[in-house]
């Protein structure tokens, strides 16, 4: 399967137009890197994500505070998170169980990013708010799908790749400026909230219009 063919399949699965911007770049990188993993079960790849996120939290909060290593691990988490579904599509192994497992793991990863922000100094209230917005974001899509609306609608600024990228950039910046880690954690959390609120409004507008028709 070529990358162009995968984009067509991705758009069909998500009920939207071909991805653009950061999402498209992310998918291109993941497509190239996932090729060696096509021999593995995609569900096994999915289950590996939370393990890696736990490792990132450990290295970022350990006495040595290895932010650079944590940044690399979170980047790998994002890639693995893209690999599972990508491998499933490329090997024709998509399944309802795989989709269910992927949804659960995705939410665990969102919580993991929030925990990273908290252990590095972000106010608990703001980090919990950011996580909650992300969870509501995904719940809106799941609920709409559950009542028969199969279209994603739009690609928002706070999609999963953006949330992963935010975590990677924050940890990398913390590695460069460890003395500013608390300020950086606050900035990352506020950025997550800001993008999340914009995305919430966008999804609410689309679903309100579509579901009333």
TrEMBL record:
Annotated GO CC locations: membrane
Any GO BP annotation: phospholipid biosynthetic process
Molecular function in Gene Ontology: phosphotransferase activity, for other substituted phosphate groups
TM stretches of this protein: 40-60, 67-89, 109-140, 161-178, 184-207
Keyword Transmembrane included in the entry's annotation: yes
Pfam families assigned to the protein according to its UniProt record, in alphabetical order: CDP-OH_P_transf
Gene3D superfamilies the UniProt entry points to: 1.20.120.1760
Keyword terms: Membrane, Transmembrane, Transmembrane helix
Name of this protein: Unannotated protein
